[in-house]
């Protein structure tokens, strides 16, 4: 009697688990995200003078049967390439094949994809920042501080002079005095161009969300604005959780549960990463950790929010950072 009862209970549970696995398998997909920067100084790496590039075409290439797939970067330099199903992209690379304007003369090397997470058949990969380059470096890029001085200009040799026929007592020959030329000085360096506030600073800084809400610090919003939507800043996973109409300004005022706290602190960390290149997390790391927390449990979302909050307060391990804000003009 007990055996039929056990079978009666276990059979529906097995059917439900099977159907859940089938649904997750059908809805599973693989996403590749990353950023493209304009390498204005052609130094082959991200620097103070580089900025996210809009309209660059990126392709994902694999040695096997997958790819190539491509996407074009948005206003923030982000690209997102989607593959249907759970695809193993180990060994695949991302590279720039086309870029607009002055940054379309050359491209940096391809970057290998790195797995961020894999969850119920869905996976997300990323790659190191890709670079597009202009034909020549910009005029305000750093130059060699010790240029070799130009060679002094020598006077041309004087033509030979014909001597008169010898006399019994020839007059002494008077040689012309050597011509001394003034030294040739190198041309002065052009004045250093001050960059607009759009570019992030090299100074290490971290500011909490209360600072970003103050009107006297509005000029520190870079790359994104208070009216930028959460969906555009963090991607489709965040759009599914918070909706298409919520802005970053709304997200900074979120509180009450783990996911609104996560959005507030993740938005603050994203703004800090755009403001300072030496913030604890890069903008790509903030977006990746945010999406991973949204796909996990409530406990994971709260834990990620608390980690972002410590970084925004300027404390991460033994490192300490201060807020570099001063009132805007």
Main sheet, how many strands, which sense, barrel?
7 strands, mixed
- What is the helix fraction of residues, given as a range? 25-40%
Which class of secondary structure composition applies to the elements?
Answer: alpha+beta
Q: What integer value in Å does the Rg equal?
A: 32 Å
Mean pLDDT: 80
Helical segment tally?
Answer: 8
Instruction: Please provide the count of β strands.
Output: 13
> What is the ordering of alpha helices and beta strands?
HEEEEEEEEEEEHHHHHHHEE
Query: CA-to-CA gap between the ends?
Result: 83 Å
Give the amount of beta strand, in percent: 15-25%
Overall shape: extended
Uncertain segments: 1-26, 189-196
Secondary-structure map:
Blueprint: H1 2-27, E1 29-38, E2 51-52, E3 57-61, E4 69-72, E5 78-84, E6 93-98, E7 106-107, E8 111-112, E9 114-119, E10 122-126, E11 130-133, H2 209-212, H3 230-234, H4 236-242, H5 248-252, H6 258-275, H7 283-295, H8 298-312, E12 315-316, E13 319-320
Parallel strand pairs: 1-10, 1-11
Antiparallel strand pairs: 1-2, 1-5, 3-4, 3-6, 6-8, 7-11, 9-10, 12-13
Helix pairs in contact: 6-7, 6-8, 7-8
